[in-house]
Amino acid sequence: MSNAHEPEELPDGSLRDADGVIYRRTPRRVTRSLGRELIAAGAVVATDVYPDGLWFHHGDAARETWQQIESALVTGRRPRLRDIQWVGHVWESDDGLVLLRFDGQH
After folding, report:
1. Which segments of 54-106 does DSSP mark as H helices, in order?
2. Are the CB atoms for 65 and 83 separated by under 8 Å?
3. Residue 6: its pLDDT value, please?
4. How far apart are the first and last CA of the chain?
5. Residue 99 buriedness (CB in 10 A; 0-12 / 13-18 / 19+)
6. How many CA atoms lie within 13 A of 77 on its CB side?
7. Which pTM does this prediction carry?
């Protein structure tokens, strides 16, 4: 499997990875400390920003993507938009695998 690819969006809003794992959104927002912890534990990262669209990042690509997002992560009310900003949510599979999905706005 490559380190970045497009996931399949299912009719119920869940996301299917290339290896067949289905992730569903949880109510948890990603904070910097939670993001660091989950990335260190091997979480997959999904990014969705115009015009790139939705992409999954695994392994080294997930860690590199997180490093780019972390400084622009919005954890409370969105500030006035000056550059790209990201809002993240924790998604989980039925088997307990974790995905961090970040939606970008610029």
Report:
1. 59-70
2. no
3. 79
4. 30
5. buried
6. 2
7. 0.87
SS3 category, 63: helix
Question: What is the rounded distance in angstroms from the CA atom of residue 74 to the CA atom of residue 69?
Answer: 10
What are the structure tokens assigned to 8, written together? 């399949």
Six token digits for residue 32: 């910097």
Quick count: other Cβ atoms within 10 Å of Cβ 53? Answer: 9
Look at residues 94, 106, 95, 93 and name the one whose alpha carbon lies nearest to residue 46: 93
* Helix orientation angle between 32-40 and 59-70, rounded to the nearest 10 degrees: 170
Could you report the per-residue pLDDT of 52-105, keeping only the tens digit for each? 889 999 999 999 999 999 988 988 665 565 667 899 999 999 999 999 999 988
Question: Is the distance from CB of 76 to CB of 85 less than 8 angstroms?
Answer: no
Alpha carbons within 13 A on the beta-carbon side of 48 = 13
